[in-house]
Design brief:
Elements (H helix, E strand, L loop, with lengths): L2 H31 L3 H4 L12 H47 L5 H9 L8 H10 L6 H24 L4 H9 L5 H8 L4 H16 L3 H6 L23 H32 L5
Helix pairs in contact: 1-11, 3-6, 3-9, 3-11, 6-9, 9-11
InterPro entries: MetI-like, MetI-like_sf
Membrane topology: Multi-pass membrane protein
Family: Belongs to the binding-protein-dependent transport system permease family.
Length: 276
């Protein structure tokens, strides 16, 4: 087989795998959201005898005194606050790590990037948050999300900053810029490609987060979108049509965000791979 033939075979297999791994489950979610409770309980790919999507959506929205609306607000607030803090803190840290060269620099880089490997510890984190009076608060959960996303964002920012000449820093210092003014007025505007990537990728991760809100922000008033899935499944009975309708509703915002900004994600990921 020629090289072109092998490449074509690989492409066909890749497309087929993507259809199986992504589109088939998505089709199953949409199909089940269209069904009534009896047909949804069969968990098959048969087309429903009656389309009940709108009725299912209304039931999901009004369930438990419009909990889905409250959850959407909490998830949006969590995502926005976390992204703002994450982009500012990680970009500043990456700037210092990229420009500073001394004996402590390798150790600082090691401890920051070790966060990509070391798994989060739930019980000690709860103990720390409780000691600070931040357990079961939005502020505490924001700090947790920032801490978990910090190493990855620093890695991206640092790689991109390697493409920015140090002459720009020196020229800005000569012109009277220094400290925060140098960073926020000169350097940070140059980081738009990688900042766009971080905003989109981390927004999807935080918006879809299930574990951290479950552990660090319990309570019906603090519920986030992913935790609303508990409303429709239990030990004795599960409302599968409403459950999959809920899954469909909470999947749409991140999916739309990813579809419209996927090119920016790729551009930002590779922007710092080659130094100028």
């Amino acid at each position: 087989m020629s090289r072109k033939g092998r490449l074509l075979t690989i492409e066909i297999v890749s497309v087929a795998l993507s259809i199986i791994l992504f589109w088939v489950p998505l089709y199953f979610v949409i199909l089940t959201a269209l069904k009534n409770p009896q047909e949804a309980a069969r968990m098959n790919l048969d087309w429903p005898t009656e389309i009940r999507l709108w009725q299912n959506i209304k039931e999901v929205f009004v369930f438990r005194d419009y909990m889905l609306v409250r959850a959407f607000w909490n998830s949006t607030l969590l995502t926005v606050l976390s992204i703002v803090v994450l982009t500012v803190v990680s970009s500043m840290a990456a700037f210092v790590m990229q420009r500073r060269q001394d004996k402590a620099s390798p150790w600082i880089s090691f401890f920051v990037l070790a966060g990509l490997i070391i798994p989060p510890a739930v019980v000690p984190t709860i103990w720390v948050l409780n000691g600070l009076g931040l357990f079961k608060t939005m502020t505490g959960l924001v700090l947790v999300e920032v801490a978990l996303g910090f190493p990855f964002c620093v890695m991206l920012y640092r790689g991109f900053m390697g493409t920015i000449p140090k002459d720009i820093d020196e020229a800005a210092v000569v012109d009277g810029y220094g400290g925060y003014r140098l960073f926020f007025q000169i350097i940070f505007p140059l980081l738009k490609p990688v900042t766009s990537t971080i905003i989109v990728t981390q927004a999807v991760v935080i918006f879809n987060d299930f574990v951290n809100p479950l552990y660090f922000l319990p309570g019906s008033k603090n519920v986030t979108l992913q935790l609303t899935l508990y409303n429709f499944t239990s030990q004795f009975i599960s409302k599968w049509n409403l459950l999959f309708t809920d899954i469909l509703l909470i999947t749409i915002p991140p999916l739309i965000l990813f579809i419209f900004f996927n090119k920016r994600i790729v551009a930002g990921m590779v922007a710092g791979s080659v130094k100028g």
